[in-house]
Amino acid sequence: MTDLLSKFDPLIAERAALLATGVRDPFAIVMEQVLSPTRAVIAGRETILVGTYNYMGMTFDPDVLQAGKDALDDFGAGTNGSRMLNGTFRDHKDVEDALREFYDMDHAMVFSTGYQANLGMMSALVGKGEYIVLDADSHASIYDGCALGNAEVVRFRHNSVEDLDKRLKRLPEDAGKLVVLEGVYSMLGDIAPLSEMVAVAKRHGAMVLVDEAHSMGFFGPHGRGVYEAEGLEDQVDFIVGTFSKSVGTVGGFVVSNHPKFEVMRMVCRPYIFTASLPPSVVATSATSIRKLMTADAKREQLWANARALHGGLQALGYRLGTETPQSAIIAVILTDQAQAVMVWQAVLESGVYVNLARPPATPSGTFLLRLSVCAEHTAEQIATILDAFGKAGRAAGCID
Amino acid sequence: MTDRAQVLETVTAQIEPFNKKQASLTDATTFAGDLEWDSRTVLDFVAAVEDEFDITITMNMQAEIETVGQLVDAVLKLRR
After folding, report:
1. I need a surface site. Which of A18, A170, A363, B78 has the fewest CB within 10 A?
2. Which residues of B touch A131 (CB under 8 A)?
3. Which domain holds residue B21?
4. Residue B27: which CATH number?
């Protein structure tokens, strides 16, 4: 018998070698208690969370929690079924209403995760002989959606308007095309030049889908995303989003003004062949989304925190993913795995949790420590985070 | 020189800047195995080939192309 797992031996060996150096396992962190959107207990120690995508700090909002408790009492723990059959309850419709209100769009379709929303759209919307044109740094869910479907897939260089234009120009004029963009790219925290890209896509007759997972809540006047900040509301055909970041729960969605959009419910396999979200999750999500519509003070605080953290890390001498604070993600670029893990662990031991990201998730084989800022981070917490990064970086020799 | 020989020559010249291991290049040379290219290198190289011949090599096709010879055949087909 051939052991099918033996092909993973190099990965097992790499991991064993890393752990043998005595470091904590960066991919086995357990939150023993969660105290607030920005604090948890990890290995018995109170830790500041700066790696959770909880941008708007909604996870402990009292109204959100109450909505979830009520839904548990009234509708039970789970739905036992697909959205298509017995899995659509009152609050699944309500959360779709909340999304239509939030985005001011005609249609909203909720999936069980953001990953599934992208799987569903890529695989069902674009068929054989049609083209998906995507950014090379697209999220895994976009690539996996392409793999699930039958479309021809063409990728362009990350954020290159010129390369997108060149690639579209070479495709058959009459073939269906979908250009897939992300408002904020989650590894480096950089934003897409959406206005130019959407203009190029439209010039070549392509439809446009923008994944706004990492911008919901704090880009644009209503917090709809980078596309709103750039005034592209009538140019973008589909917006994909998630509940697991600013909304503070779990789930994914697509919103659109396309008059035929509802048919997607009948053709997206990742929507049909899986269980719908539990009642408490859609209830907490709906409440959170409606509160985000008017969360102007939180938006402002989040941007202020992002600027403070970005500026502070830059002043310490770190190389960051972006020159300026473009989003709520700040990526510290390190040279290799050993250095990244060393700084990551030292920071954790100072009571600060950040994400460690490595290839293949990262572009160009880089090793990153990724900070995601929360509107609820206090000035004192930001000072603690910067202090931890200062000490850890100097000890590891990556800053002076 | 045949069409195929010409394309092979052009492709070989385009591989050179990415041929860090100085592997010898034949029809049977594999990109992942012999040249040890990562996905970033593949992206840059494919873009160079596409620009040179003004063609689109989709990711679907790239998945099928493992050797230099297969790439040359694909280019010949796409150029038509």
Report:
1. A170
2. 58
3. 3-79
4. 1.10.1200.10
